[in-house]
Amino acid sequence: MKFSFTSLLILIFFVGCGTTQQTLTTAPTNTQIKEQKKLVPSDAILGTWKMESYQVFSPDPDPTDSQEIIWEFKNNREILIGNTEGKTSALNSGRYWMNKSILKVNSTLYMYSFEAPYGLPDNVNAKPLGDELWLDSNIDPSISNDGPKIHFTKVR
Question: pTM surpassing 0.70?
Answer without folding.
Answer: no
